[in-house]
Write a structure and sequence with these properties.
Length: 527
């Protein structure tokens, strides 16, 4: 034993190992904050996800600082650990790219070298002889606009088979499509949607049964957003042999359904001295009684505007509210036909003939208003939005001719419909509460049940069954019942994030997302 070595130096070397307690403190604080975020605080799912992402980032930075400054590791190891972590992060940043988010605000990550369909597809199209295309059966139904024939999310006369395992849906075609959150409008053999192709916004018409491109119309316009995604957001409306399509920058086109030739075109943003909303113009045009009604969001009586379907001239304009991301719909309340629109400040009702504002109902701001109001009956309107806001049932009365009032019946945070339109059926409300299928009692707003996560998708009531297009790309068939959640069957219709509303034209289901589109023939219930 070497008695010349100082005993104090031996004790110091033995006791100065790795200092673990700072790392333990960081992890303990991170765990405590995670518990607070997900189990204590009153916040909606999107906020919790954002807080969790920031928590992960902050914890990683704190641990790197611990390794570098407080760990007592040898300096070579400190630099090796920090360099290795930073190298991995740099590699991920160099090879991966955030391309949008999910409905819950989680990032969608793809390889940087993966091109979007808007970059790959061109405006070229083949000339297709109409007599070479298959004809539809006479019994085929139409789906001429957003949310179905009556813009209420319902399709009547179509009874779907309840089991897609024994009777699988038949794939008619599936192919790439230009980037957009648009959906299809279907009349006869024509299926019309909107796409982004390069620097052009495109209205594209496909053959329903084959997917062959029949015609396109292009405008030089391109809405871009890392978070919200690129391309058009609205769905065309087909009426009386015309297509009315509104692009994300405000270009409103009236086109011939047979050829795509331009009848007239307007820019609703420029003409009404408005501005493009943060996530792009998203209103699907409403056509009624020779008028096409759109949400322009202009001030000084230019919020909601009706154009003549034949000439494109302004028929009326009214309101001062800024636009949000909802679409106008027709409603008959207290025997009066009116147009409802969910604007930035809330819901407004306009006389369908003159545009006069009949009544309004204020709504919390600071977030997008997307889902259309639902007319529950002749005097009650259901309103809902996401981001923690919830739903309200509103009583609308005409106290005397020309004098209207709108008052709250109940308010509930049990159904926060971010994207999807809700369905009212037999005294109950069915919708997606932050992506989870939920049933509320219409009379009280109390939750009956909540079960089944389908993400921020869309749905259609087909006679007595709910067809849900899940955010995952799966088509799901549900039986609406106040007794319990009843999922009947499902199949994978698309791959990847799907926000686009589906279209159900008779037995034909048209689905799409920002990368691909497909048409399926769904099995029908046997008599």
């Amino acid at each position: 034993m070497n008695t010349d070595q100082p005993q104090g130096e031996t004790r110091t070397t033995a006791t100065q190992g790795v200092r673990w307690w700072p790392a333990g403190t960081v992890l303990a604080l991170a765990a405590g904050y995670w518990v607070y975020v997900w189990h204590i605080q009153d916040a909606h799912r999107q906020t919790r996800n954002l807080q969790t992402l920031m928590l992960v980032q902050g914890t990683l930075i704190a641990l790197l600082l611990w390794v570098l400054l407080f760990s007592r590791l040898r300096w070579k190891r400190r630099f090796a650990w920090c360099g290795g972590v930073l190298g991995v992060v740099g590699l991920l940043v160099a090879t991966l790219e955030i391309r949008g988010v999910t409905g819950d605000l989680l990032p969608v990550v793809e390889w940087r070298w993966t091109k979007s369909t808007s970059e790959v597809l061109t405006l070229e199209q083949a000339t297709i002889a109409p007599d070479t295309l298959p004809m539809l059966a006479e019994s085929s139904a139409n789906y001429p606009q957003f949310a179905g024939p009556n813009r209420d999310g319902r399709v009547v006369g179509v009874r779907l088979a309840r089991d897609w395992q024994s009777q699988p849906p038949e794939l008619l075609w599936r192919q790439p499509i230009g980037t957009a959150w648009s959906g299809f409008a279907v009349v006869g053999q024509h299926a019309v949607t909107m796409e982004q192709r390069g620097a052009n916004e495109v209205v594209a018409c496909y053959h329903l049964l084959t997917g062959d491109l029949l015609w396109t119309h292009a405008d030089e316009a391109h809405f871009e957003s890392v978070i919200a995604g690129d391309g058009p957001r609205s769905i065309p409306t087909i009426d009386n042999g015309r297509v009315f399509a509104l692009g994300s920058s405000g270009i409103l086109n009236c086109l011939e359904l047979a050829s795509g030739n331009v009848v007239w075109t307007k820019n609703i943003i420029a003409e009404n001295q408005s501005s493009v909303p943060g996530w792009g113009v998203s209103c699907s045009p409403l056509v009624t009684e020779g008028k096409v009604i759109v949400s322009a969001g202009g001030k000084d009586g230019r919020s909601l505007v009706a154009y003549d379907t034949e000439t494109g001239e302004v028929v009326w304009a009214a309101g001062d509210d800024s636009a949000s991301y909802s679409s106008p719909l027709l409603a008959t309340i207290e025997g009066v036909t009116q147009t409802l629109i969910f604007n930035g400040p809330g819901v407004k009702s306009h006389d369908v003939n003159s545009g006069e504002v009949l009544w309004g109902y204020d709504w919390p701001g600071g977030h997008p208003h997307i889902a259309m109001p639902v007319v529950a009956d002749e005097s009650r309107v259901l309103i809902s939005s996401g981001y923690g806001t919830g739903s309200e049932l509103v009583q609308v009365d005409q106290d005397e001719p020309g004098s209207w009032s709108a008052t709250q019946i109940w308010q509930s945070k049990r159904l926060k419909s971010k994207f999807a339109n809700m369905i009212v059926l037999a005294g109950y409300i069915y919708g997606l509460d932050d992506g989870i299928f939920t049933c509320l009692d219409l009379a009280t707003g109390e939750r009956v049940w909540k079960s089944g996560r389908y993400g921020h998708g869309q749905m259609i009531l087909a006679s007595d069954l709910l067809l849900v297009m899940a955010e995952s790309g799966e088509a799901v068939l549900l039986e609406p019942s106040p007794e319990e959640a009843r999922e009947l069957t499902r199949f994978a219709a698309l791959d990847g994030k799907t926000w686009n509303p589906p279209a159900l034209a008779g037995e034909y289901l048209l689905v799409r997302n920002d990368k691909e589109a497909a048409c399926y023939r769904l099995p029908l219930a046997r008599p």
